[in-house]
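Hi R.,

Here's the chain you asked about this morning:
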Amino acid sequence: FKAAYDMSEQLGEGGFGTVRKGTHRYSGLARAIKRIHLEHPTAKDWNAVLQEVEAMMDLDHPNVARLFEYFRTDQDLLLAVEFCAGGSLEERLVQKGGKFQD
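And the predicted structure, written out as tokens:
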């Protein structure tokens, strides 16, 4: 992962992990890097997670942030996702007078 991306500021934090801005070293393109921490994952856990990730990589829609690649450590999954400037979806909805419900 470190050979492919330079990391910069944190963009957000949630129940599953953190999101930081990263720059792809070879293309220079910005990406949102989502780090999801898994406590003591089993092989079965990893299989389920990676099956979902592979399905996400097949998504190609203008209204869905694209997942370009992923990396795995012993307990972390790092997702390199299309960077969308302008804040979170919740912030954008509030700016437009909408509401974000959990």
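The two ends are 32 Å apart (CA to CA).

Let me know if you need anything else.
M.
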